Amino acid sequence: MVEPNDRVNDEVLDEIVEDIRAVRRAHAAAFGFDVARIVTDLRKKDAASGDRLVSLPPKPARHRRAAAGE
Q1: Backbone dihedral region of 43: left (phi > 0), alpha (psi from -120 to 50 degrees) or beta?
Q2: What angle do CA 39, 45, 41 make, to 5 degrees?
Q3: Residue 31 sits in which domain range?
């Protein structure tokens, strides 16, 4: 678990985030940064993976109490 204000963990997380961003940039560049082509490719990969995707129904909205003075 990452503890807040832990410099070493922050640096590791920053490195991981940068790695992920680099992969995403390379993937987007492979499709000329065309969002429609990127989405098409990702959907093909999802379908080919054979993983079962689950869609849950939306949760009902919770009503917040009005703030004092409203």
Answers
A1: alpha
A2: 30
A3: 7-47
Report yes or no on 70 lying in a domain.
no
25-68: pLDDT as tens digits: 999 999 999 999 999 999 999 899 988 878 889 899 888 776 65
Encoded tokens for 22: 């680099």
Using CA atoms, how far apart are residues 21 and 15, in angstroms rounded to an integer? 10
Q: Where does the chain have alpha helices with state H?
A: 7-30, 35-49
Q: CA-CA distance, 60 to 65, in Å (whole number)?
A: 16
pLDDT of 70 strictly over 60: no
Task: Find all residues with CB under 8 Å of 28, minimum gap 6, and list them.
Answer: 38
Is-above-0.70 flag for pTM?
no
